[in-house]
Amino acid sequence: MTTEDKVQRLNGNDEYFLDTDTPAAPTHIGGLEIYKLPPGAGRDFLQKYYNQLKRMPVRAEPFNYVLSSLDAEQEDKPEEGPLAWLRPTPRRKKKEPPARVWRKLDNVNPEEHIYLHRLPYPGGQRELGELVARLHVDRLDRTRPLWEYHLIEGLEGGRYATYTKLHHSQFDGKRGMALAQYTRSTKATARNLPAVWSVDLDKVRGRSASAKAAAAADEPGTFQKLAAFGKALSKMGEARQNQPGEGVIGPYTAPESILNGPLTPRRRLGTVSLPIPRIKKLGAAVEGGATVNEILLAVIGGALRRYLLDRDSLPKDPLIAACPVALVRKDEAAAGNAIAQILVSLGTNIADPKQRLQAVVESSHANKGLMKELEGDAYYSYVMLSMMPQGLAAKTKYGHKVLNANLIISNVPGPRETQYVNGARMEAMYAAPLLLPGQALNITASNFGDNLDIGIMSCPDLCTSPQRIAVYIGQELEILERAMGLARARGAKKAAPKGRPAKEAAAKKAPAKKAAAKKAAAKKAPAAKKAGAAKKAAVAQKAGTAGKTVVAKKAGAAQEAAAPTGASAAKKAAAKAKTAVKKGAPAGKGAKATPTTAAPAKRARRLPVPQPAPSAASAEVPAPTAPVSAAAPAAPAASAVKTAPKPAAKKAPARKAAPPVAPGAGATPEARTQQPSVAKRARRSPVAEHVEVPVVSPAQAPGTMPPPDAAAGPTPPALDQSS
Q1: For residues 579 and 598, what is the distance between their CA atoms, to the nearest angstrom?
Q2: 420-453 CB burial, b ≥16 within 10 A, e <16
Q3: Tens digit of each residue's pLDDT (9 = 90 or more) over 631-665
Q4: How many other CB atoms sit within 10 Å of the CB of residue 172?
Q5: DSSP state of 644
Q6: Fewer CB near the terminus (10 Å): N or C of the chain?
Q7: What angle do CA 360, 364, 367 make, to 5 degrees?
Q8: High-pLDDT (> 90) share of the chain, %
Q9: Which contacts (CB < 8 Å, 24+ apart) does range 483-487 have?
């Protein structure tokens, strides 16, 4: 095998993503896919699948490529043979530096790249997002092939997820999607599908020497390259003379914002899905039409405007988004990128949603027109010139000050039909994109079926809440529909058939509710009487120190009339109460009060007391010190007793007339459990409605499980503006 067959050169895009890779801004990309387990799957389904993946050979390029260097002499060195010594040694005037290349490996151990994780139960979208963000932080090891595959089990609802991590120097979004189509099927019965690294490319596509020769024949000459470079430089100078956000946007004219600054390795991931039919309907409502990408840019512009207004940080000039565009690939190389980009104004300085949409459409048309005007080679030179300053400054302390744009917004075409992997149905696919130096936000969408699944990656030290932006994106779609006159018609169709039956059902159910309330009140009446008697006894015992209610006053008056005074009398009353409790004689509904202490003791004993948890202390029922008349007014309910002390506190003189409490008598169970009941109700109060993905913990080594106390929702960025 020749050296040419074993290595592949890098193009300008590949070099850029390798040069801008830093610990704070790694340039790998990721894809998050969520699957529903197939019917009848056992608990060990993911473990068996993990073992199966480890046995699949690594034969798809570039999963068996490793970064290497190639000297100029080594590159031109012919094959050795018996007559190799007869060839003259080529002379070079100046030694060229070694070139970086991808070298193909004969053997790759898949176990070094595949990992299994389990989410803490129950694994929700919050825990999944945090785990993926933590895995996304770690840089790929350049001494091995630059990819990882993470299998994540324990997701609630009988689901699991996969997270694939690739370096952008080898993959763009279009290439990644094209390769992934061979790992899924539209049939739920399909089994034994290959993993993405195990696809046999020679069978799925024909790569011949004639195709490589045709691509090499189309390579422009030196004069053509110089002419394209001069034309691109002239157009760049003209674009920089335009007003901010108007016409063709010049590179490095983006305004300063809180979304731009020095990055840290920390990451957060937010997710949201938008219905594509609604987006297309909005595009059709625009005069002259608008693409899905243009509607998406306008919706994101409105969301970012709200996000920045919340923080009093909205720039005077509109934010500028860099939108990657897929180019036609001229070769059949297995690795590398074929992308360019356009700059589009998001209209964040415009408050009216309809006017903002119009500004975004005009900006998109103007910058796509530049791409058509410069054509292939000239526009490629234009993009390389615009990215060069940012690439040179990426690894310096001034990298965050050299901004070609404020953020990246991408849209990657995905599958239209339902997808299955060994019987597991795919439910969603989100991007986990990269962040370039100085840009703390990247929003990448990928269509799957009738949904546009959007992954929002941010550096939380600059952009604290990507999930808040995700919420705003969903709301801004509705706001834009109302502004375009679409939401009312759509809402009226849904509300008309459901409104009348709902009202009629409510009217029919109203009498039943009243009857049920009466029955409940009747059932609770005896319990309320018993509770009232017990409450009166409790307040009467504390009348000397804490008699704060009207019930306490009446209990004290009854006590004066019936109970003997003094310590000896209290002991006798306690003895009688214990005797009555032992006998357990029930008091009838119409029983009359007697000047003894037995009846109140029995009522207090028989009263069911709500308690947080039974204990030895709360199980004891102390003997009351005064009788309570059955004819006395019923005590208020538990919730009313808490508010009663305010009016009772004005009649404080009645406390002096209360007799002394017998020694050893304590508070009733109701009094002791009243405050815990309040705490119990407080614990049942509703929690916050909106939950965001928390701050991502420091980077965790690949393949390890997340810590027990850590909570653990995507495809590479590339924007096909033709959609």
Answers
A1: 8
A2: bbbbbebbbbbbbbbbbbbbbbbbbbbbbbebbb
A3: 344 444 443 334 444 444 444 444 444 444 444 34
A4: 28
A5: T
A6: N
A7: 140
A8: 41
A9: 483/352, 483/353, 483/354, 483/357, 484/282, 484/285, 484/286, 484/354, 484/357, 485/285, 486/281, 486/282, 486/285
Cβ burial, residue 337 (10 Å; 0-12/13-18/19+): buried
Give the pLDDT of residue 532. 53
Using alpha carbons only, give the angle 200, 202, 207 rounded to the nearest 5 degrees: 145
- 257: nearest Cα among 309, 314, 302: 314
Task: Give the DSSP letter of residue 112.
Answer: G
On the CB side of 154, CA atoms within 13 Å amount to 18
Rounded to 5°, angle at Cα 225 from 221 and 231: 145
**Mean pLDDT rounded to a whole number for the chain:** 73
pLDDT value of position 55: 95
- Catalytic residue annotation: 168
Question: Of 180, 185, 125, nearest to 147 (Cα)?
Answer: 180
- What was the pLDDT predicted at 330? 62
In whole angstroms, give the CA distance from residue 578 to residue 598.
8
Locate 596 and state its tokens.
């003894």
d(CA 154, CA 479) in angstroms, rounded, equals: 37
DSSP string, 329-367: -SS--SS---EEEEEEE--TT---HHHHHHHHHHHHHHH
